[in-house]
Structures are given as structure tokens and as C-alpha cells.
Amino acid sequence: MAKSGNLGQMIYVDPNRDFVGVMFSTNPYHSGYGENKGPALMRSAAKQLADK
Fold this sequence. Notes:
The radius of gyration is 12 Å and the shape is elongated. The longest helix has 13 residues, at 38-50. Helix content is 25%, strand content 25%. The protein is α+β, with helices and mostly antiparallel strands and 52 residues long.
């Protein structure tokens, strides 16, 4: 589960892997610069930490 904020803040919770990730930013999203990679990076981190 992930929830994003107004200027790039995000919380990512994966209860199955006992993982919570938080991202803080003050930069607004600009559609011409691409998508936010935060959710994919946090999911990858949750998977890697669960394997250890």
C-alpha cells in the first residue's frame, strides 16, 4: 500500500514483509519530467530486505 502527498511525499507499507518506507520531497511533480520512481524503489528495497 502506498500513499503520496502533494509535493512528492510518500509512505509505502508492506505488512507481509514488515517494511515501511517514507520519502520526503519539496519538489512538485512536473508531467514533462517523467514519473516518480519512489514506489518502485521502495518495493525493490522491501523485497531485498525480506530475502536477508
